[in-house]
């Protein structure tokens, strides 16, 4: 085994926590930077450092204490990463890639340049420029407006069908996309190491909570034809190669009625749509990310069992210290794997954990997932 390079991670949320747990399997040193030792990853990091991953000095000083640097969130200070890279630090994904992905406008231009299929779009300096384009007929209803830089978990997205919806417009630099009449939202997570070895995971299908615009249920394998699976995997490979990324990349896709697949957006890190891999695949996305950024051979992505992943979102009307109602009943069910992130305060629709249900068939796993959904609730302690 090679020397244990110290791995640094920007961000100490649930993704950092699950990465630290994977690193523990190899007893690998993992250093995590985030603002509070109360955050999910802190107790599982071999070294936790308090600091802000958006602050130049905090990121730069942290980078000086590790051998390889990665992220669990893309909204980090990339100026510090450019400086660290110039000084010889290995950073995956690289700052140049992060600069493109962090800005949805640059991301869309990147797809266009690399002939990666994506919905037609237009860029606007702000929402007023967008209104002017509408008045002039250069933009037509319906469309989807996205903030170029402020988006996360659906918060920077507005679906505009008609004039009355315009008060939902998000201020600031933005883009508009044609409203895609998709039949399914899919995701492929894909890994690549420095050797250029690539491994794609089985295609997943996502079901959204319409109110929160957050993924509620995820099914693996996706219920689509083998032809669509091949097509989606090919796109994911092309995207990770075009970006020249090492590590995990989540490629979110729209599938249309006529079998067309479009890239919605990517995340250059481990991703919610890969959580099920912990129990359902030969290699979890977290171990795969470690393999990729530390330049080890990639692990098998084969599916052991069909799986359904359920995001545990904070219940509506509950804000305060979290309490997990119904947990014991769920623990008594076969194939139900509960992951709690340890966030102290629950809020409506906050991601507090997830549950992966594995079964002999997707139908069986799905039935159990519905039961878990009705039993398990994150509420505030009264
Ligand atoms: P975020 O970065 O916040 O996750 P996304 O760009 O993924 O935002 O958009 C969130 C959701 O909004 C998507 O998963 C999809 O349901 C819907 N959406 C986004 N873009 C479009 C589009 N062009 N047409 C139709 N629906 C869209």
Quick rundown:
By secondary structure, this protein is α+β, with helices and mostly antiparallel strands. It is built from eleven helices and 21 strands.
Write the SSE topology.
Elements: E1 7-10, H1 14-25, E2 30-34, E3 47-50, H2 56-63, E4 68-71, H3 78-86, E5 90-91, H4 95-102, H5 104-113, E6 121-124, H6 127-136, E7 143-147, E8 157-160, E9 174-178, E10 182-192, E11 198-200, E12 204-209, E13 214-220, H7 226-243, E14 247-256, E15 261-267, H8 277-280, H9 285-293, E16 307-313, E17 320-325, H10 327-331, E18 336-340, E19 345-346, E20 351-358, H11 362-375, E21 377-380
Bound molecules: adenosine-5'-diphosphate (ADP).
Question: Could you characterize what this model shows?
Answer:
There is one protein chain. This protein is of the alpha+beta class and 382 residues long. α1 (14-25) crosses α9 (285-293), α3 (78-86) runs antiparallel to α4 and α4 (95-102) packs across α5 (104-113). The chain is globular. β4 (68-71), α3 and β5 form a beta-alpha-beta unit. It starts with 6 loop residues before the first strand and ends with a strand. The protein has three domains: 7-91, Rossmann fold; 120-178, ATP-grasp fold, A domain (Dna Ligase, domain 1); 182-380, ATP-grasp fold, B domain (D-amino Acid Aminotransferase, Chain A, domain 1), CATH 3.30.470. Strands 10, 11, 12, 13, 14, 15, 16, 18 and 20 form a nine-stranded antiparallel sheet that branches. It contains eleven helices and 21 strands. Bound molecules: adenosine-5'-diphosphate. Residues 119, 144, 146, 151-157, 177, 179-180, 185, 208, 213, 252, 264-265 line the site of adenosine-5'-diphosphate (ADP). The site of adenosine-5'-diphosphate has 19 residues, from β7 and β15.
């Amino acid at each position: 085994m090679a020397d244990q390079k110290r791995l640094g991670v920007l961000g100490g949320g649930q993704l950092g926590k699950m990465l630290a747990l994977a690193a523990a399997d190899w007893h690998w040193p993992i250093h995590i930077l985030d603002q509070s030792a109360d955050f999910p990853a802190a107790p599982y990091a071999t070294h936790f450092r308090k600091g802000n991953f958006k602050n130049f000095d905090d990121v730069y000083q942290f980078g000086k204490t590790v051998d390889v640097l990665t992220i669990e969130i893309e909204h980090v200070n990339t100026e510090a990463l450019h400086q660290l890279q110039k000084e010889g630090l290995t950073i995956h994904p690289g700052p140049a890639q992060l600069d493109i992905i962090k800005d949805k406008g640059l991301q869309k231009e990147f797809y266009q340049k690399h002939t990666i299929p994506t919905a037609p779009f237009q860029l606007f300096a702000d929402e007023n420029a967008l209104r002017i384009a509408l008045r002039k007929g250069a933009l037509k209803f319906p469309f989807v407006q996205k903030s170029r830089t402020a988006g996360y978990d659906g918060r920077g997205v507005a679906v505009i069908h008609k004039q009355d919806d315009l008060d939902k417009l998000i201020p600031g630099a933005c883009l508009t996309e044609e409203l895609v009449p998709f039949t399914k939202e899919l995701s492929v997570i894909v890994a690549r190491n420095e050797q250029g070895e690539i491994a794609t995971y089985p295609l997943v299908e996502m079901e959204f909570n319409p109110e929160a615009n957050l993924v509620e249920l995820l099914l693996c394998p996706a219920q689509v034809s083998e032809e669509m699976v091949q097509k989606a995997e090919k796109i994911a490979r092309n995207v990770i190669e075009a970006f020249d990324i090492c590590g995990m990349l989540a490629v979110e896709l729209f599938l249309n009625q006529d079998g067309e697949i479009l890239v919605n957006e990517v995340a250059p890190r481990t991703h919610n749509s890969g959580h099920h891999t912990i129990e359902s695949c030969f290699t979890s996305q977290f171990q795969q990310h470690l393999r990729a950024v530390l330049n080890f051979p990639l692990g098998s992505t084969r599916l052991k069992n069909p799986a359904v992943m359920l995001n545990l979102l904070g219940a509506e009307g509950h804000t305060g210290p979290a309490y997990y109602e119904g947990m014991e009943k769920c623990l008594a069910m076969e194939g139900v794997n509960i992951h709690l992130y340890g966030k102290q305060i629950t809020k409506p629709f906050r991601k507090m954990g997830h549950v992966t249900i594995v079964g002999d068939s997707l139908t069986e796993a799905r039935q159990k997932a519905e039961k878990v959904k009705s039993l398990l609730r994150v509420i505030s302690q009264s």
